Amino acid sequence: MKKYMVIVGIIGATVLGACSVDSGGNTAPEGALTEAKLTEASLTDREEAILSGSEDAFVFDFDVDETYSEVTVRMVKYEFGALVDHHVSALSALVDGEGSIVFTASRLINQEDALFTTSVSSGDSIGTHQTVETILRDGSEGMAKISETHLEPEVPIKGDMVLATIAYSSEDAMSSLPASFYDDPEAYEDVFGDYDIVYVLTSEFR
User: Fold this and answer.
1) Phi/psi of residue 194, each to 5°?
2) Which of 118, 142, 188, 205 is the most buried (most CB within 10 A)?
3) Mind telling me which PROSITE patterns this protein's record contains (predicted)?
4) Pick from 113, 107, 65, 71: which is nearest to 90 by CA?
């Protein structure tokens, strides 16, 4: 596990180093969101190789002004449509200008548990949180899975934002969540009943 944390730290630092620097010198008014943005990161071959050992990996870049000083990344869990855990994992970290959010999921050796790792890097700091979740239970042989993000190429930061979802189903076939779910998550929570387990990854900048 220690080795895995080091790898996540490396990818976080690498992605942060790749962020472009805005030299326009424009300062947004207090409370304005035009300068605060979140994007799905474009990875280099080296970064993709580092993350290749994970079953799922999501990497996001952010760029905030002095309005924001902290971000909290949470993972919420639903079972058969019911909210069962508000904070399967939660990581709060200080932010300073540009940075990155890295989330990975890896199945452990026993194949019943999954290791979820969240990392936030910004400025000179890197914060990491790990949690283990049991996916297979009661003698079940396996589950189908869909992991995805529908984040637009670049979106303004606002409130509690959905970054990605990982859904599991014991049925032979399963479909993706509606793309519009990411625009209005609360309006689509009833579709979680179609899955055994749904993990929702969110971020909130303050």
Assistant:
1) -80, -5
2) 118
3) PROKAR_LIPOPROTEIN
4) 71
